[in-house]
Design brief:
This protein has helices spanning 3-10, 16-22, 66-70, 76-88, 96-104, 136-144, 172-186; strands at 23-29, 37-39, 45-55, 58-63, 91-95, 119-123, 150-157, 160-165, 198-201. It has 202 residues and is α+β, with helices and mostly antiparallel strands. The longest helix has 15 residues, at 172-186. The protein is globular, with a radius of gyration of 18 Å.
Length: 202
């Protein structure tokens, strides 16, 4: 993104309506950054506010610092509420089989959908979409299909997570080892979250 495009974006920082429209939530490894952020119930991960959009076909995001909100009179509480609303409206849960089909070009068998337990949760542009895991309403709807309120969560990257309904046949240590291996071999350091899997109750 060039200087002119950046200036076009930052000019909107004086417009509270634009800010509220573009606010959403992102996740990163716990840090000391002075952002508008709060703890996440996934140990070692924090959630923070970003301004996200698209400019000339490219996705962009800006980390929100407190002064961005205070300059336009938006409280942090209101910002978090609006960010969660925006995130919830842009949450997608897709079976891993369908994701792999899209990547490989191999046709997908919809009849097998009910048997596929691992799914990918992200946003529509698959950019900093791991935070969609904070959309608890969508997660509860997902787990209800499997008659459980427990969920395995595997942080693939800052862009997406894998989820699966709890199943005693899976071992949390084995899933954590899988996350660690994928991080080391397929995910760039700046896009990693943690080297472990989680179980959450909804």
């Amino acid at each position: 993104m060039n200087t002119e495009q950046i200036n076009d974006i930052t000019m909107n920082f004086n417009d509270p309506e634009w800010i509220l429209e573009h606010l959403t939530i992102a996740l990163q490894h716990s840090s000391e950054e002075a952002l508008v952020k709060r703890p996440c119930d996934l140990d070692g991960i924090e959630q923070y506010l970003i301004l996200q959009g698209e400019k000339e076909g490219a996705n962009y995001s800006v980390k929100v610092v407190p002064i961005i909100l205070s300059n336009v009179g938006i409280s942090e509480s209101k910002a978090w509420d609006k960010a969660l609303e925006n995130l919830s409206a842009d949450t997608q849960i897709v079976s891993l089989g369908k994701v792999l089909s899209d990547i490989t070009g191999i046709s997908y068998d919809n009849a097998a959908e009910a048997d596929i337990r691992f799914h990918v949760i992200t946003n529509s542009n698959k950019f900093k979409g791991a935070a969609c895991i904070m959309n608890r309403k969508a997660l509860r709807t997902f787990t209800q299909k499997y008659n459980t309120n427990m969920l395995f969560v595997l942080p693939s990257s800052i862009h997406e997570m894998m989820i699966a309904p709890y199943d005693g046949n899976y071992n949390l240590e084995d899933l954590s080892a899988m996350v660690k291996e994928i991080n080391e071999t397929q995910v760039s350091p700046e896009e990693r979250l943690t080297d472990r899997a989680y179980i959450i109750c909804l």
